[in-house]
Design brief:
By secondary structure, the chain is α/β, with parallel strands linked by helices. The chain has four domains: 109 residues, Rossmann fold, CATH 3.40.50; 132 residues, P-loop containing nucleotide triphosphate hydrolases (Rossmann fold, 3-Layer(aba) Sandwich); 69 residues, Helicase, Ruva Protein, domain 3, CATH 1.10.8.60; 53 residues, Arc Repressor Mutant, subunit A (Orthogonal Bundle), CATH 1.10.10. Helices cover 48% and strands 11% of the residues. The protein contains 18 helices and ten strands. The strands form two sheets. Strands 2-1-3-4-5 form a five-stranded parallel β-sheet, with helices on both faces. A five-stranded parallel β-sheet has the order 7-8-9-6-10, with helices on one face. The longest helix is centred in the last third of the chain and has 20 residues. It is globular, with a radius of gyration of 22 Å. The N and C termini lie far apart (45 Å).
């Protein structure tokens, strides 16, 4: 059985549906497209759909009917709904009827892809705080504490460490968790949200916003009525606090958001959690697909514990997906992971830490990619296997943004 996630795109706007479908295929998904609610329901009844991305406003059969069908399947499909400006009430109804999330039009393909990655994580039963390590227990405690509070929360951590999942868990455990959490990737999108209809606002990767957009976000937050505004959650890369201490231009936004701060630990600091996370996710994902879960042997588990996990939970999720295709061989991390060969080298070099070594390797790879592509960021993102916003952050971190 294929381990590809099969997505059904439903929209009566044919060009929009086809365009989104092509982008999702380029990101490795298996995609089917239907142009009406009736056709979508007929396809769902055949089975084999993992996720539905559907417009709400269609006639005569609307997206809510598609949602009801998807959630009533023997193995329910996850549903992401797309709603136009001024129809947030429809999105709220969809969430109450089982939709996993919603995006307000106009949306970009990148936004849809990011939401789908979160849905994939949910399908793997990913909870960032699951595990037996002290770091996992402390994260679970912090989530519980900040969820009960009413203050703004900043989630800091590395890409793939689970900041988006933590944001959703903080919201769902909060008093407003019964209402939707609106994801706002850019301050200009805030005007499209009916603040009275949502329970929280989530601003991901705020440190990657341009300076003028950061100013716009501060102004937007300051303009809200503190007595009626939804709770604000934001995320940023781990080093943003250090950057704010040195750069006055980002301090206003940082201190506006970091009323409460939760540091999401990287997976390499949680080696005791590797085995329980991996085996738990394998069992759940294998059950979803009706297959027997493969199991790593002792040597493979040892290598997995020693691996640096630069992609964090997202990388571990990829191991799970590969294992469902290739079996036990997928756990041979020296074959399937590119960062392993040099991982033990720092232990052999006195006075040279693992972090220093990884940063040196990372910068070298970036410089080589610049030389190969002439700073074509789309090409660089593809050959390095990172998203464009992560690439921009790394280039800025190493002072390479102006290099050509």
């Amino acid at each position: 059985m294929s381990a590809k996630t099969t997505i059904l795109v439903v929209d009566d706007n044919r060009s929009a549906a086809d365009g989104l479908g092509m982008v999702l295929e380029r990101h490795g998904y298996a995609v089917e497209v239907r142009y009406s609610g009736e056709a979508a329901i007929a396809r769902l009844q055949e089975g084999g759909i993992d996720v539905v991305v559907t417009d709400l406003r269609m006639e005569p059969v609307d997206g809510l009917a598609v949602l009801d069908c998807a959630r009533a399947l023997p193995i329910p499909a996850e549903v992401l709904v797309l709603t136009g400006y001024g129809t947030v009430d429809d999105a709220v109804r969809a969430m109450r009827r089982g939709a996993r999330d919603f995006l307000t039009k106009p949306v970009t393909a990148d936004q849809v892809v990011e939401q789908l990655r979160q849905l994939q994580g949910a399908g793997l039963h990913i909870r960032v705080q699951d595990g037996v390590s002290a770091a996992a227990r402390e994260l679970a405690r912090q989530i519980e504490v900040v969820a009960a509070a009413d203050a703004t929360v900043l989630l800091s951590g590395e890409p793939g460490s689970g900041r988006n999942q933590v944001a959703r868990q903080v919201h769902e455990q909060s008093p407003a968790g019964g209402r939707p959490l609106a994801v706002i990737p850019h301050p200009s999108h805030l005007a499209r949200v009916d603040l009275a209809a949502v329970g929280g606002l989530y601003f991901p990767n705020v440190d990657l916003l341009d300076p003028r957009d950061q100013v716009q976000l501060v102004q937007a937050l300051d303009s809200m009525d503190p007595d009626t505004a939804p709770r604000v959650i934001a995320s940023a890369h781990a080093e943003w606090g250090e950057q704010a201490a040195l750069d006055p231009s980002v301090q206003e936004l940082y201190y506006r958001l970091a009323v409460l701060e939760v540091v999401v630990p990287p997976l390499r600091e949680r080696p005791d959690d590797i085995e329980p996370l991996l085996t738990g996710w394998l069992a759940a994902r294998a059950q979803d697909r009706g297959v027997d879960p493969p199991a790593p042997n002792g040597e493979q588990l040892k290598a997995l514990r020693l691996h640096a996990w630069p992609g964090n939970l997202r990388e571990l999720a990829a191991v799970v997906e590969r294992a469902l295709v290739f079996g036990n061989a997928a756990f041979d991390i020296q074959v399937h992971m590119k960062s392993m060969p040099g991982e033990r080298l720092p232990e052999l070099i006195e006075g040279f830490s693992l972090q220093q070594y990884l940063e040196e390797v990372e910068r070298t790879l970036l410089v080589r990619a610049i030389d190969q592509t002439g700073m074509d960021r789309t090409h660089m993102s593809r050959i390095l296997g990172v998203e464009r916003n992560t690439l921009r952050y790394k280039l800025n971190k190493y002072g390479l943004l102006d290099r050509s």
